[in-house]
Write a structure and sequence with these properties.
This protein has helices spanning about 90-95, 100-105, 110-120, 120-140, 155-170, 195-210, 230-240, 255-265, 275-285, 295-300, 305-310, 335-340, 350-355, 355-360, 390-395, and strands at about 1-10, 30-40, 45-50, 60-65, 70, 75, 140-145, 175-180, 215-220, 245-250, 270, 290, 320, 380-385, 400-405, 410. By secondary structure, it is of the alpha/beta class. The model has no long low-confidence stretch (mean pLDDT about 100). Bound molecules: N-(iminomethyl)-L-glutamic acid (NIG) and fe (iii) ion (FE).
Length: about 400
């Protein structure tokens, strides 16, 4: 199988060297080739260059991309795409005036989704999730992270892990897997918070590790959920099984989860709708990438992550969808990209860097995804005709996709 894409108006995010992260001021630069070609064999990017230097390549499939752009598929480093049912009733309750936290306190929220998931068969859960996965792929996502966290029992968390693993085996998208047993304290442990943390540490983590499916471990470090002390215990328990932290921090309150994440060498700290100088200083001292989730801010009507403060401090930033039934029921990276520009005040170049190479970094796959580089995986978006890459976030919510190439295959 070989594909040649010719006459590309802009080939976007081209790196001759295998760059794996872009930070601070460097995020303002988006390397492009004007009037270019790219050549793919099987699942790999083999060659690219300018049309003026093009010497005939014999390819099985030739795509004429006159007027169109080609860029790497989106890398969505934070999703909860495996869930059962929906929470539309809570959406309506919020419109009528209840807050996300008030709904959670009444037994709604994550516990509501956990109840539904526990009562859903593994096959049904797989089918519901597969539909969502195929939908996000059709919207341009080529690599994504998926978390557990709606199980909250050993059985249901393992069921989620097996479903995510099956998606990973059967899908052409690259999937990275995170254990999020510490997503909420289940009803059975009401007023026995500490005992649920014991249960995570002594039961869920070791049993999950036996399956050897998850690579990362996450904790919802937030008031009413898990404290910094709980988070530290859970990360230490995960470390015994080489689980690398990726954390939910600072969504509603600043508890110190950012510094804890950096101290534990977290790959990423995500949300950060609330942020202070200590958090920025902590991030400057480590290798942990901050991740903004603008679709969640939009849907919950909460502050947007102060991206400018992070980038202007010289830090890297990724953006992701947070696709989940409660705070962001959309896996649309295009929407996140537009919100990054419109609400986080990021330039289109910064936003595309955040949604490609830095998104790949935030799930540990930027050596193979997130840029047009020889040897990287052939996950590409061919756009409809447009003047330049700035037009992608500009046309928020409009379809901009002409073709999707995933793992070297053209999506039909
Ligand atoms: O990232 N904040 C915690 N977890 C999810 C929401 C989960 C839910 O409401 O179901 C989030 O926003
Ligand atoms: Fe989340």
């Amino acid at each position: 199988m070989s594909i040649l894409i010719k006459n590309i108006k802009q080939l976007v995010q081209v790196h001759h060297n295998n760059v794996t992260i872009v930070k601070g001021d460097d995020m303002k630069t988006l390397p492009i080739l004007e009037d270019a070609y790219v050549y793919i064999e099987n699942d790999t990017i083999i060659e690219y260059g300018l049309m003026k230097d093009y010497a005939t390549i014999d390819a099985k499939t030739v795509i004429d991309a006159t007027g169109k752009l080609v860029l790497p598929s989106w890398c969505d480093s934070h999703t909860h795409l495996v869930y059962a049912g929906h929470r539309i009733n809570e959406f309506v309750d919020r419109i009528k005036g209840l807050s996300y936290n008030e709904i959670a306190k009444r037994g709604g929220g994550i516990l509501n989704s956990a109840k539904t998931l526990q009562a859903t068969s593994e096959d049904d859960l797989y089918q519901q999730s597969l539909e969502r996965l195929n939908h996000v792929i059709s919207m341009g996502t080529g690599a994504l992270e998926i978390k557990t966290g709606y199980g909250l029992t050993v059985d249901a968390e393992l069921k989620m892990l097996r479903v995510i693993d099956r998606l990973k085996q059967e899908s052409k998208a690259n999937i990275q897997i995170t254990l999020l047993a510490a997503h909420a304290v289940p009803e059975d442990y009401k007023n026995k918070h500490e005992e649920y943390v014991d249960y995570i540490v002594n039961n869920i983590i070791p049993k999950a590790a036996e399956l050897n499916i998850a690579r990362y471990i996450d904790v919802f470090c937030e008031e009413g959920y898990f404290s910094v002390k709980d988070t530290e215990r859970i990360l230490n328990a995960g470390a015994k099984f080489q689980l690398i932290p990726k954390l939910h921090v600072n969504q509603f309150n600043i508890l110190g989860g950012v510094a804890l994440g950096v101290a534990h060498n977290a790959l990423s700290v995500d949300h950060l709708e609330e942020l202070n100088n200590d958090d920025i200083e902590a991030l400057k001292c480590g290798n942990t990438i901050p991740v903004a989730l603008p679709n969640c801010s939009y849907f919950l009507n909460i502050p947007y992550t102060p991206a400018r403060q992070l980038i202007d401090a010289g830090l890297p930033l990724a953006i992701a969808t947070d696709y989940n039934p409660g705070s962001a029921p959309s896996g649309n990276m295009h929407l996140a990209l537009s919100a990054a520009c419109i609400k986080l005040n990021m330039t289109p170049a910064e936003a595309i860097n955040a949604a490609t190479i830095n998104g790949a970094y935030a799930m540990g796959v930027s050596n193979m995804y997130g840029s047009i580089t020889r040897g990287k995986k052939a996950n590409l978006i061919v756009t409809t005709p447009m003047p330049g890459y700035e037009a992608i976030p500009y046309h928020f919510g409009n379809n901009y996709i002409d073709e999707i190439i995933i793992n070297g295959d053209i999506l039909t």
